[in-house]
Protein backbone atom coordinates (compact mmCIF):
# COMPACT_ATOMS: atom_id res chain seq x y z
CA UNK A 1 0.00 0.00 0.00
CA UNK A 2 3.06 2.27 0.07
CA UNK A 3 4.41 3.70 -3.17
CA UNK A 4 7.86 5.27 -3.33
CA UNK A 5 9.46 7.45 -5.98
CA UNK A 6 12.40 9.81 -6.18
CA UNK A 7 11.86 13.38 -7.42
CA UNK A 8 15.21 15.13 -7.47
CA UNK A 9 16.48 15.26 -3.89
CA UNK A 10 13.10 14.33 -2.41
CA UNK A 11 11.80 10.82 -1.79
CA UNK A 12 8.02 10.82 -2.16
CA UNK A 13 6.23 8.24 0.00
CA UNK A 14 2.57 7.85 -0.93
CA UNK A 15 -0.06 6.03 1.12
CA UNK A 16 -1.74 4.32 -1.81
CA UNK A 17 -5.00 2.87 -0.62
CA UNK A 18 -7.52 5.47 -1.75
CA UNK A 19 -10.50 3.10 -1.58
CA UNK A 20 -9.91 2.93 2.21
CA UNK A 21 -8.91 6.58 2.53
CA UNK A 22 -5.31 5.41 2.97
CA UNK A 23 -6.03 3.67 6.28
CA UNK A 24 -2.97 1.91 7.66
CA UNK A 25 -2.87 -1.85 8.26
CA UNK A 26 -0.13 -3.53 10.33
CA UNK A 27 1.58 -4.48 7.08
CA UNK A 28 1.23 -0.93 5.80
CA UNK A 29 2.88 0.40 8.93
CA UNK A 30 5.88 -1.86 8.31
CA UNK A 31 6.10 -0.69 4.70
CA UNK A 32 5.81 2.95 5.74
CA UNK A 33 8.53 2.58 8.36
CA UNK A 34 10.92 1.05 5.86
CA UNK A 35 10.13 3.59 3.14
CA UNK A 36 11.03 6.49 5.43
CA UNK A 37 13.86 4.96 7.45
CA UNK A 38 15.70 3.65 4.39
CA UNK A 39 15.40 6.83 2.35
CA UNK A 40 18.72 7.95 0.86
CA UNK A 41 17.43 11.48 0.38
CA UNK A 42 17.72 14.66 2.44
CA UNK A 43 13.93 15.12 2.46
CA UNK A 44 11.03 12.66 2.51
CA UNK A 45 7.60 13.88 1.47
CA UNK A 46 4.71 11.79 2.86
CA UNK A 47 1.35 12.15 1.17
CA UNK A 48 -1.85 10.23 0.44
CA UNK A 49 -3.39 9.02 -2.81
CA UNK A 50 -6.86 10.13 -3.82
CA UNK A 51 -8.83 12.68 -1.84
CA UNK A 52 -7.52 11.89 1.67
CA UNK A 53 -4.23 12.03 3.54
CA UNK A 54 -5.05 9.13 5.87
CA UNK A 55 -8.00 7.85 7.86
CA UNK A 56 -5.51 6.44 10.39
CA UNK A 57 -5.62 2.85 11.61
CA UNK A 58 -7.52 0.44 9.40
CA UNK A 59 -10.81 -0.36 11.13
CA UNK A 60 -10.74 -4.04 10.18
CA UNK A 61 -7.24 -4.36 11.64
CA UNK A 62 -8.39 -2.73 14.88
CA UNK A 63 -11.33 -5.15 15.13
CA UNK A 64 -9.06 -8.13 14.42
CA UNK A 65 -6.65 -7.00 17.11
CA UNK A 66 -9.51 -6.94 19.60
CA UNK A 67 -10.57 -10.48 18.63
CA UNK A 68 -7.02 -11.84 18.97
CA UNK A 69 -6.42 -9.95 22.24
CA UNK A 70 -3.25 -8.38 20.84
CA UNK A 71 -4.22 -4.71 20.80
CA UNK A 72 -0.98 -3.75 22.52
CA UNK A 73 1.04 -5.44 19.76
CA UNK A 74 -0.88 -3.53 17.10
CA UNK A 75 -0.40 -0.23 18.92
CA UNK A 76 3.29 -0.98 19.50
CA UNK A 77 3.79 -1.42 15.76
CA UNK A 78 2.22 1.97 15.09
CA UNK A 79 4.30 3.60 17.81
CA UNK A 80 7.50 2.08 16.44
CA UNK A 81 6.67 3.37 12.98
CA UNK A 82 6.07 6.90 14.23
CA UNK A 83 9.29 6.85 16.25
CA UNK A 84 11.20 5.63 13.19
CA UNK A 85 9.86 8.60 11.23
CA UNK A 86 11.04 10.97 13.96
CA UNK A 87 14.45 9.29 14.08
CA UNK A 88 14.99 9.15 10.31
CA UNK A 89 18.09 10.91 9.00
CA UNK A 90 15.91 12.65 6.42
CA UNK A 91 13.70 15.62 7.16
CA UNK A 92 10.16 14.26 6.84
CA UNK A 93 7.37 16.51 5.57
CA UNK A 94 3.69 15.60 5.80
CA UNK A 95 1.96 16.96 2.71
CA UNK A 96 -1.68 16.89 3.82
CA UNK A 97 -4.36 17.28 1.15
CA UNK A 98 -7.83 16.25 2.29
CA UNK A 99 -8.82 14.61 5.57
CA UNK A 100 -6.36 13.42 8.22
CA UNK A 101 -8.15 11.47 10.91
CA UNK A 102 -6.99 9.69 14.06
CA UNK A 103 -3.79 7.87 13.20
CA UNK A 104 -3.48 10.07 10.13
CA UNK A 105 -3.09 13.04 12.47
CA UNK A 106 -0.58 11.05 14.50
CA UNK A 107 1.39 10.29 11.35
CA UNK A 108 1.47 13.98 10.50
CA UNK A 109 2.57 14.80 14.06
CA UNK A 110 5.47 12.35 13.80
CA UNK A 111 6.76 14.18 10.73
CA UNK A 112 9.12 17.13 11.15
CA UNK A 113 6.92 19.57 9.27
CA UNK A 114 3.24 19.63 8.39
CA UNK A 115 2.25 21.43 5.21
CA UNK A 116 -1.41 21.47 4.18
CA UNK A 117 -3.49 22.52 1.23
CA UNK A 118 -6.61 24.64 1.82
CA UNK A 119 -8.65 21.42 1.45
CA UNK A 120 -6.94 19.65 4.37
CA UNK A 121 -8.87 18.88 7.56
CA UNK A 122 -7.76 17.34 10.85
CA UNK A 123 -9.63 15.50 13.59
CA UNK A 124 -8.84 13.15 16.48
CA UNK A 125 -12.02 11.11 16.14
CA UNK A 126 -11.18 8.19 18.41
CA UNK A 127 -13.14 9.59 21.34
CA UNK A 128 -16.35 9.21 19.33
CA UNK A 129 -15.71 5.45 19.13
CA UNK A 130 -14.59 5.04 22.72
CA UNK A 131 -10.92 4.93 21.70
CA UNK A 132 -8.08 7.42 21.27
CA UNK A 133 -4.95 8.06 19.24
CA UNK A 134 -2.34 5.74 20.74
CA UNK A 135 0.56 5.97 18.29
CA UNK A 136 2.27 8.56 20.47
CA UNK A 137 -0.43 11.15 19.96
CA UNK A 138 -1.00 11.86 23.65
CA UNK A 139 2.59 13.07 23.81
CA UNK A 140 3.06 14.69 20.42
CA UNK A 141 -0.21 16.61 20.14
CA UNK A 142 0.28 18.71 23.32
CA UNK A 143 3.97 19.12 22.45
CA UNK A 144 3.01 20.63 19.09
CA UNK A 145 -0.15 22.64 19.83
CA UNK A 146 -0.04 23.09 23.62
CA UNK A 147 -1.97 21.28 26.32
CA UNK A 148 -5.18 23.30 26.09
CA UNK A 149 -5.75 22.80 22.37
CA UNK A 150 -4.66 19.16 22.64
CA UNK A 151 -7.29 18.51 25.29
CA UNK A 152 -9.92 20.34 23.26
CA UNK A 153 -9.19 18.42 20.06
CA UNK A 154 -8.87 15.01 21.74
CA UNK A 155 -11.93 15.25 23.98
CA UNK A 156 -14.25 16.90 21.45
CA UNK A 157 -13.24 15.02 18.30
CA UNK A 158 -14.03 18.20 16.38
CA UNK A 159 -12.68 18.87 12.90
CA UNK A 160 -10.24 21.67 12.11
CA UNK A 161 -9.86 23.16 8.66
CA UNK A 162 -6.39 24.01 7.38
CA UNK A 163 -6.40 27.62 8.52
CA UNK A 164 -7.58 26.72 12.02
CA UNK A 165 -4.90 24.03 12.22
CA UNK A 166 -2.35 26.64 11.16
CA UNK A 167 -3.48 29.09 13.83
CA UNK A 168 -2.84 26.62 16.65
CA UNK A 169 0.47 25.40 15.22
CA UNK A 170 -0.65 21.96 14.07
CA UNK A 171 0.22 23.03 10.51
CA UNK A 172 3.24 25.17 9.69
CA UNK A 173 2.19 26.28 6.22
CA UNK A 174 -1.00 26.31 4.14
CA UNK A 175 -0.13 26.23 0.45
CA UNK A 176 -1.57 25.00 -2.83
CA UNK A 177 1.37 22.67 -3.52
CA UNK A 178 2.93 21.10 -0.39
CA UNK A 179 5.59 19.29 -2.42
CA UNK A 180 7.13 22.65 -3.31
CA UNK A 181 8.00 23.10 0.38
CA UNK A 182 9.82 19.77 0.39
CA UNK A 183 11.75 20.84 -2.70
CA UNK A 184 12.63 24.10 -0.96
CA UNK A 185 14.03 22.27 2.07
CA UNK A 186 15.97 19.85 -0.12
CA UNK A 187 17.80 22.81 -1.63
CA UNK A 188 19.64 23.34 1.66
CA UNK A 189 22.80 21.59 2.84
CA UNK A 190 22.18 17.89 3.59
CA UNK A 191 24.47 17.69 6.61
CA UNK A 192 23.02 20.84 8.15
CA UNK A 193 19.49 19.48 7.73
CA UNK A 194 20.39 16.26 9.56
CA UNK A 195 22.17 18.01 12.42
CA UNK A 196 19.43 20.58 12.91
CA UNK A 197 16.73 17.92 12.95
CA UNK A 198 18.56 15.90 15.60
CA UNK A 199 19.31 18.92 17.79
CA UNK A 200 15.74 20.23 17.61
CA UNK A 201 14.31 16.82 18.47
CA UNK A 202 16.87 15.84 21.11
CA UNK A 203 14.53 16.66 24.01
CA UNK A 204 11.84 14.18 22.98
CA UNK A 205 11.63 11.06 25.17
CA UNK A 206 8.25 9.39 24.87
CA UNK A 207 8.74 5.69 25.70
CA UNK A 208 6.99 5.94 29.08
CA UNK A 209 4.04 7.77 27.57
CA UNK A 210 3.74 5.18 24.81
CA UNK A 211 3.67 2.32 27.32
CA UNK A 212 0.75 3.97 29.07
CA UNK A 213 -0.99 4.48 25.73
CA UNK A 214 -0.73 0.78 24.86
CA UNK A 215 -2.19 -0.33 28.17
CA UNK A 216 -5.04 2.19 28.15
CA UNK A 217 -5.89 1.56 24.49
CA UNK A 218 -6.00 -2.22 25.06
CA UNK A 219 -8.50 -1.73 27.89
CA UNK A 220 -10.71 0.57 25.82
CA UNK A 221 -10.51 -1.72 22.80
CA UNK A 222 -11.64 -4.69 24.88
CA UNK A 223 -14.70 -2.72 25.96
CA UNK A 224 -15.30 -1.60 22.37
CA UNK A 225 -15.17 -5.21 21.16
CA UNK A 226 -17.72 -6.23 23.78
CA UNK A 227 -20.13 -3.58 22.47
CA UNK A 228 -19.79 -5.04 18.98
CA UNK A 229 -20.82 -8.53 20.14
TrEMBL record:
- Record's InterPro entries? ClpP/crotonase-like_dom_sf, Enoyl-CoA_hyd/isom_CS, Enoyl-CoA_hydra/iso
Recorded hits in Gene3D superfamilies, A to Z, give:
2-enoyl-CoA Hydratase, Chain A, domain 1
The record's annotation in Pfam families points to:
ECH_1
Recorded superkingdom: Archaea
Q: What is this protein called?
A: Enoyl-CoA hydratase/isomerase family protein
Q: Which GO terms describe its molecular function?
A: catalytic activity
PANTHER family annotated for this entry?
Answer: ENOYL-COA HYDRATASE, IP11341P-RELATED
Q: Which family does it belong to?
A: Belongs to the enoyl-CoA hydratase/isomerase family.
Amino acid sequence: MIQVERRGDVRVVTLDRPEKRNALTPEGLVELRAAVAEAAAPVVHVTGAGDAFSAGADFDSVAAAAERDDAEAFIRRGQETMRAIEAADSVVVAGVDGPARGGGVELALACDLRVATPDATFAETGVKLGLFGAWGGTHRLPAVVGLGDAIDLSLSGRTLDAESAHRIGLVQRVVEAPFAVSEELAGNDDAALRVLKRRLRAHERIEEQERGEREAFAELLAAYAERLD
